[in-house]
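Handoff note, outgoing to incoming analyst
You'll be picking up this chain. Sequence as last confirmed:
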Amino acid sequence: MILKHFASEAMSLSWLWNHIVADFSNIGSTSALTAFATVVLLDIALAGDNAIIVGALAAGLPADQRKKVIAIGILAALLLRIVFAVAVLYGLERFKEYGLVFGGGLLLLWVAWKMYRELQPAAPAGGSPEVEGDEHSGIKPAKSFASAAWAVAVADVSMSLDNVLAVAGAAREHPGIMVIGLVLSVALMGVAANIIAKYIERYRWIAWVGLAIILYVAAKMIWDGWHDMAPLFA
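Most recent structure output, in case you need it:
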């Protein structure tokens, strides 16, 4: 049903393409440039965070099982980001007056709290050799392949929704930049998540900047969402 609506006139591929062209034609404007920079920083911070959590959950397994769990985690994250991106692109505008934007802002506050806790120093816990930086995550490794795969699947659902909501909230006034940001989030998770995790561990300020941006986006979504719902209370 969502895919059918997504292909409708209001959310057609030509509609998306026109917005991409319009937004990047005006990328020099303060609004568009700020939205694009915000989206890129969010994608970098959240892709690295995703990789660290998946690596930490798989760290206690034998090498062959560990690699399988990490591969499953990356593939699941890719697919989930695509599904959530379609749903959010359709839903944020169609149902904003029913509190979807407001609810997304509240969810991002919870995301910010989770990220803050993950940024607190933790004792080294071994970590997975495939992912640099996960040894300081403070996450307890899973004890079996099945428990690791399940934990990674649950984490991926949460983190993929977090990523998509954050990008959509940051670039809601620029649909073209939003679409490119969502494509970039998928690409980074599939290609460069481990590299990003390594640099986030080395340069912690990147993650703190990501946290500050998430807080800003959450506050903006709550504010805008409240005003979107105003007609319901009139």
